[in-house]
Design brief:
This protein is an alpha/beta fold. The protein is built from 9 helices and 13 strands.
């Protein structure tokens, strides 16, 4: 049984924040923002760009691209952020209502910026386990830039956070754009390194917290996290890509495109060099910023628009999420062809 991508949808806000804006807010040299952080500009939410609303807009785009009716959807998985219109709210059910998916059931999942990869793996597993599930919508929104204090040097590596929505329509028994195997790793030693320290049960939100600006992302041990993460992060990026390819039956020499999250340019280039790929075999999201779990879908959409992906190409989408989680999933675009030739 094959599962393929039938439709792709992306929504990007009109509002932008430039490298110059970030440099001014953070009192940083402009070259640090542009060169080290890799940001020319990023998309930020406008007045009506709420998290789930952006997911709904992306979902409608994906449905139109797939040329299906909402009533054909069997399951909806919301993979966007928990920072959304309301707390304690199942976003997938709201999406179901807005797109007219009256025959579907819906739920939410969360693995921070790694959630899109998890959603694809989970959707495929659901279709394998239940023959009544034939069409699945994955949709998510992200605007965690709301939670950034540009005066807080501890969160400098998150100054690239932006906003947007992404969606995929997955179809059972497809003959093209096939999704193969995922590989996901988590490391709990980072689980409390990046948090919003107030607003939960440990520190219920108060008026004083709001006045002090504490309802923002913070890093509890920045130097310790940096030291531990540098030892593992890039190695784990490479590991999940290789594991995903191997489990999917492809050789890494067949890899034609990597859809990566926005991160430091040096790290992005290192991943490409490791797999003997060139700049055109990926897209560096310097004009968009890091839109969380939407990055991989945005990268895929941009690559298709720019014709960087051809029929038969093997591509891998790769993510990393605070917590820490790394994930990759392999796709063969276009019509299915043979898998790995071990003589390569």
């Amino acid at each position: 049984m094959n599962v393929g991508i039938l439709g792709i949808g992306v929504y990007l806000p009109i509002e932008r924040m430039t490298a110059e804006d970030i440099a001014e807010k953070a009192s940083l040299p402009i070259e640090v923002v542009k060169t080290k952080m890799g940001i020319i500009e990023k998309r930020v939410a406008g007045q009506d760009d709420h998290t789930v609303q952006m997911a709904i807009r992306a979902a409608r785009n994906a449905i139109n691209h797939a040329n299906i009716d909402g009533k054909e959807i069997d399951v909806i998985i919301y993979f966007g952020e928990e920072h959304k219109e309301y707390p304690l709210w199942t976003a997938g059910i709201k999406i179901q209502e807005e797109i007219g998916a009256t025959n579907a059931w819906a739920f939410d999942i969360q693995l921070r910026c790694g959630t899109a990869i998890l959603a694809m793996k989970l959707a495929k597993s659901l279709m394998h386990s239940d023959e009544n599930i034939r069409t699945v919508l994955l949709a998510g929104g992200y605007r965690n830039h709301d939670l950034i204090d540009y005066r807080n040097e501890r969160t400098r590596f998150m100054f690239n956070l932006g906003a947007g929505g992404g969606a995929l329509i997955l179809k059972r028994d497809s003959s093209e754009n096939l999704i193969y195997e995922a590989d996901i790793m988590t490391d709990g030693s980072f689980s409390e390194d990046v948090i919003v320290p107030v607003g939960g049960t440990r520190q219920p939100l108060t008026a004083e917290h709001i006045m002090m600006g504490l309802y923002r992302l913070d890093v509890t041990d920045p130097q310790g996290m940096k030291t531990r993460l540098e030892q593992r992060s890039l190695d784990n990026f490479i590991k999940v890509i290789r594991n995903s390819l191997t489990k999917s039956g492809f050789h890494e020499k067949e890899l034609a495109y990597i859809g990566m999250l926005h991160m430091k340019r040096s790290a992005h280039d290192f991943v490409l060099r490791t797999f003997h790929l060139k700049e055109e075999n990926s897209i560096y999201l310097s004009n968009y910023g890091h839109i969380g779990q939407i990055d991989q879908i945005l990268s895929l959409q941009l690559a298709l628009n720019e014709k960087r992906i051809q029929d038969g190409d093997v591509l891998t989408l790769v993510s990393a999420g605070i917590g820490y989680a790394w994930g990759a999933i392999t796709i063969q675009w276009g019509k299915q062809r043979g898998r790995r030739d071990d003589s390569l």
